[in-house]
Amino acid sequence: QVKVVESGGGLVQAGESMRLSCVASGRTGSTYAMAWFRQAPGKEREFVATISWSGGATYYADSVKDRFTISRESGKNTAYLQMNNLKPEDTAVYYCGVDLPARKPSIAAEVNNWGQGIQVTVSS
After folding, report:
1. Residues 6+ apart with CB under 8 A from 3
2. Which of 1, 31, 59, 114 is most open to solvent, judged by the fewest CB atoms within 10 Å of its CB?
3. Coil, strand, or helix at residue 34?
4. pLDDT tens track for 5-58
C-alpha cells in the first residue's frame, strides 16, 4: 500500500506564487514517476505536470508551461510543484499521482496511486 500526501495549498491573489509538496510512503521500494493533476468544479481531472523517476525528464500542460515547475528530491518519492504568476483559472483541487508512465500528456487513468487532493484558490 502506498500512501500519498499533498501539502501547501491555500488562497492567493492573482500573480502570486505557491508551492505544493507531495510525499509518497509505504511500499515504495522503487522510485516512481510522479505527477500533478487538477480538477476544477464541474470539470474532469486534467494533467498539469509529470516528472520521471530519475527527475531527468519533465512534461507540462501547455496552460502551465513557463509558469509552473515540477521537481523532485533525488532518489526519493517526494515531488514539488512551484506555481508562479497564478491566475484565477488555476483554481482547482490539485492531486498528486504516483507511479504512472512519464509522458505528455499523462493520463489520469494510468495513475496507480493518488493523494487526497488539496485546494488551490486564486482570487482576481
Report:
1. 24, 25, 26
2. 1
3. strand
4. 999 999 999 999 999 999 998 876 678 899 999 999 999 999 999 999 999 999
